[in-house]
Design a protein that fits this description.
Number of helices: 2
Strand content: 35-45%
Number of strands: 4
Shape: elongated
Radius of gyration: 13 Å
Helix content: 25-40%
CATH class: Alpha Beta
Largest sheet: 4 strands, antiparallel
Distance between the termini: 9 Å
Oligomer: single chain
CATH topology: Alpha-Beta Plaits
Structural class: alpha+beta
Length: about 90
């Protein structure tokens, strides 16, 4: 069994308060869960309304497959108009 984790750091220039941030992140995290069957949550920068740290995790029988899933998730995230990706890291163990 292999676990893959994708850590993403965002800037949210359109968020004017924590409520806006929550709305943007909830929409994204729900969409990722439904489309890719992954677990996703905000894990960093929770008190900042212009920044966010998100983790996405998946379990697979092969490391290559976990990497493919998380790469597709990242491609979907990069298409977001209201969020700027500051950095990301894919880790497969």
């Amino acid at each position: 069994m292999v676990v893959g984790v994708l850590h993403i750091q965002f800037s949210l220039p359109s968020a004017n308060n924590l409520k806006d941030k929550r709305r943007l992140l909830t929409s994204l995290l729900d969409r990722l869960h439904n489309r890719f069957n992954v677990a996703a949550a905000e894990v960093d920068q929770q008190d900042s309304w212009r920044r966010a740290g998100v983790a996405v995790a998946c379990v697979s029988s092969e490391g290559r497959h976990a990497n493919q899933i998380l790469s597709r998730v990242m491609a979907e995230v990069e298409r977001e108009n209201e969020m700027i990706v500051l950095g990301y890291e894919i880790e497969v163990r």
